[in-house]
Design brief:
alpha+beta, binds phenylalanine
Length: 340
């Protein structure tokens, strides 16, 4: 008990509160209902009767010291404020400016989170890939234009050349080779294409691709999955439209448009007067692709889809120039501070 009293006394002596709120905090800590001194008074009841006199005195001194110290700190705080010799120390400090997440990260997280709710796992793979995983296993005929030097950054040429992946479908191949069936994954990641940089194209961008393989998966399942995703992403009244398209790895294939969330279908300059915005490619996984990864295409079927994250972010925030996403101009990035 003696040590405790001395410790609290030392604490009182060293108190140097700089604001009314700090003083109040110290008062509660020492003299409040559960304060240190109040607790010592409770403990006093257990002190042996021959020591009660000594400790009683000590405790009363301690309490008086605390009351006096608090009054003294209040007085000097007021004096400072009145005389104006010192700043108002009770004013809040300068806030630290918080960093913000990059818009691409925000949208990527949002897309992945939606699919996570639908039961999809996240799969990731290497950015430096081989020809097999980016093209060959995905049923790209040898003469397909996407293999052309125009689109792909090659690191080495020859059989099974090494290259920078042009889409994250390569991760889907790796998943089909490795994971047990059924498979339900989304593959977010950075991709590379040898394109001239402009407001609408960049040599680096990000995708989220999805893959679902099980028995009896149909095109209706694909359409439903995309519709549910679009409603989560763009609002409950969003509609979709599928246009026939071509990808080597899906058959049939489609391009997905979402109803323009800016003019709601009336036609504006974002949707170029059509009322629709293109957001992704999709289709039923080509049986050749399943077989290339060792999956029996007579038993299993599946669908795949892929979208550009920057594209979705552009639609979400109406950013007109893709280059904004890569230049790290703080004026642009700070626009997203509230979206953390
Ligand atoms: N891999 C395609 C692309 O990068 C997108 C896609 C994925 C299309 C899956 C259909 C199915 O453009």
């Amino acid at each position: 008990m003696k040590e405790k009293i001395e410790a609290v006394l030392a604490e009182i002596e060293s108190l140097a509160c700089k604001s009314e709120s700090e003083i109040e905090e110290a008062r509660v800590r020492l003299l409040g209902k559960k304060g240190e001194i109040t607790r010592l008074f409770d403990e006093f009841r257990t002190v042996a009767s021959d020591q009660k006199r000594e400790f009683g005195q000590k405790l009363n001194q301690l309490k008086n010291a605390a009351v006096a110290k608090i009054a003294q700190m209040r007085d000097s705080l007021q004096e400072n404020n009145v005389s104006g010799t010192s700043e108002d120390l009770s004013k809040p400090g300068d806030p630290f400016r918080l960093g913000s997440r990059h818009p691409v990260s925000i949208v990527r997280e949002e897309i992945v989170e939606i699919f996570r709710k639908f039961g999809y796992d996240v799969a990731e793979g290497p950015e430096i890939e081989d020809d097999w995983h980016v093209f060959e296993a995905l049923n790209f005929p040898p003469e397909h234009p996407a293999r052309d030097m125009q689109d792909t950054f090659f690191i080495s040429s020859g059989a099974n050349s090494i290259l920078l992946r042009t889409h994250t479908s390569s991760v889907q191949v790796r998943a089909m080779e490795k994971l047990p069936l059924p498979i339900r994954i989304v593959c977010p990641g950075r991709v590379f294409r040898n394109e001239a940089i402009s407001a609408r194209a960049h040599c680096i961008f990000h995708q989220v691709e999805g893959l679902y393989i099980d028995k009896n998966v149909t095109f209706a399942d694909l359409k439903q999955a995309i519709l549910l995703f679009v409603r989560e992403m763009f609002g409950a009244d969003a509609r979709i439209r599928l246009r026939p398209s071509y990808f080597p790895f899906t058959e049939p294939s489609a391009e997905v448009d979402v109803s323009c969330n800016i003019c709601h279908g009336k036609g504006c300059n974002i949707c170029k007067g059509t009322g629709w915005l293109e957001i992704m490619g999709c289709g039923m996984v080509d049986p050749n692709v399943l077989e290339a990864s060792g999956i029996d295409s007579k038993v299993y079927s599946g669908f795949a889809f892929g979208m550009g994250i920057e594209r979705i972010a552009m639609l979400k925030w109406q950013v007109k120039d893709l280059r904004n996403y890569f230049e790290n101009d703080l004026r642009f990035l700070r626009e997203f501070e509230t979206s953390i």
